[in-house]
Phosphoribosylglycinamide formyltransferase (Paucidesulfovibrio gracilis DSM 16080), 203 residues
Amino acid sequence: LPIAVLVSGGGSNLQSLIDRMESGTLDAEIKIVISNKPDAHGLTRARNHGIPALALDHTDYPSREAFDRAMVRAIQESGAQSVVLAGFMRILTSEFLNAFPGNVLNIHPALLPSFPGAHGQRDAAEYGVRIAGCTVHFVDEKMDHGPVIIQAAVPAVPGEETDALAARILKLEHRIYPQAVQWLAQDRLRMDGRHVQLRPAHS
Ligand code: GRF
């Protein structure tokens, strides 16, 4: 499956995908990595593995739509068919989503629908939950909202630093995101309203 990965930061989730592809356990190929932050370490990670990496600074565009159109153009030119958001901190317009219907995935570091937004781990820690986790979902027009593909849970320890919880969550992100992308690559995901069915693998 030819994919594009969108990042804004460190790109450890991008790295987990690259590692699975290089070890032959993820049937996808990253055609392009795009960051809206020109200094994102994720771009360096891509270049280190010979993957085309492009900075498109959203502040250079007059509107969300104009920025999204530039991304769509770059993604389509790369040959990618699906889009994987990996720590990409911009909301996508329908202009973008309509270009890749049913083919945009996101990972969020909380058990949705709890704690959407930019600080899922911190919000969960401050709330005092005993179970935290992460969610891979299809992307729709609302932030951290589309149909859930897979979730994983970790214990949350009362009074611990947010960073410790976030690190425990991130480890699980690195397991469930490649799994979800592999299911997409195998064409095993079927969306029925909010419900995502996992079809059996063909042999
Ligand atoms: C992850 O926690 C992801 O869930 C999120 O932002 C973080 C990105 O980490 N929304 P990285 O850039 O993949 O290391």
